Amino acid sequence: MYEYIKGIISFIGPEYIVIENNGIGYRVLTPNPFAFSKHEQEQKKVYLYQHVREDAHLLFGFATAEEKRLFEKLISVSGIGPKGALAVLASGAPSHVVHAIEREDEPYLIKFPGIGKKTARQMILDLKGKLDHVVSDSLTGLFVQEEGEPASSANAALDEALLALEALGYSPREIKRISGRLEKEETMSTDEYIRKGLQLLLG
């Protein structure tokens, strides 16, 4: 129903952003909300996917049309819901996911929360050879901090990143395993902590 929305990002949280358009604030779930910058009066385009179920109408948002297309492909696989697809996209490297599917790399795929061996095998069966038009160079910059965007304070940024990882479905035990290593890193922005955390979780 919706292709995209253009408006001002008025809120960024661990699970979603709020984008304001014509006086209405739309709550949009995204793979990594902190990949979106919040600058007053700056218009942003967010590509949308509307997910309808009996108890809720949800909007999912993406920085690029390619990212949205990969999300749609992922949720077409039996066993992968929208939350699972967001966790895969949050890795910031959709091209790695596509390559893993093409190489039938099940050990890589099962590292994502909610994806076991059966679902990984289903991803390969359903999507192998069908994703060549999905990935483009524009997806590789998902976690790049925009020039001039101030970094958050170290502790607040790390706390937000850990909350975002939890929202993606990683267990407290998994997050605790990497939090100490993240604390030792030099000061980063929230999205950089998320990227590093995902590298450790998927490594």
From TrEMBL:
Pfam families: HHH_5, RuvA_C, RuvA_N
Gene Ontology CC: one annotated term: Holliday junction resolvase complex
One of the GO biological process terms: DNA repair
Record region (Domain III): 153-203
Occurrences of domain Helix-hairpin-helix DNA-binding motif class (ranges): 72-91, 107-126
Keyword Lyase applies: no
Residues annotated as signal peptide: none
NCBIfam families: ruvA (TIGR00084)
Quaternary context: Homotetramer. Forms an RuvA(8)-RuvB(12)-Holliday junction (HJ) complex. HJ DNA is sandwiched between 2 RuvA tetramers; dsDNA enters through RuvA and exits via RuvB. An RuvB hexamer assembles on each DNA strand where it exits the tetramer. Each RuvB hexamer is contacted by two RuvA subunits (via domain III) on 2 adjacent RuvB subunits; this complex drives branch migration. In the full resolvosome a probable DNA-RuvA(4)-RuvB(12)-RuvC(2) complex forms which resolves the HJ.
Family indicated by similarity: Belongs to the RuvA family.
Function comment: The RuvA-RuvB-RuvC complex processes Holliday junction (HJ) DNA during genetic recombination and DNA repair, while the RuvA-RuvB complex plays an important role in the rescue of blocked DNA replication forks via replication fork reversal (RFR). RuvA specifically binds to HJ cruciform DNA, conferring on it an open structure. The RuvB hexamer acts as an ATP-dependent pump, pulling dsDNA into and through the RuvAB complex. HJ branch migration allows RuvC to scan DNA until it finds its consensus sequence, where it cleaves and resolves the cruciform DNA.
Domain notes: Has three domains with a flexible linker between the domains II and III and assumes an 'L' shape. Domain III is highly mobile and contacts RuvB.
Protein name: Holliday junction branch migration complex subunit RuvA
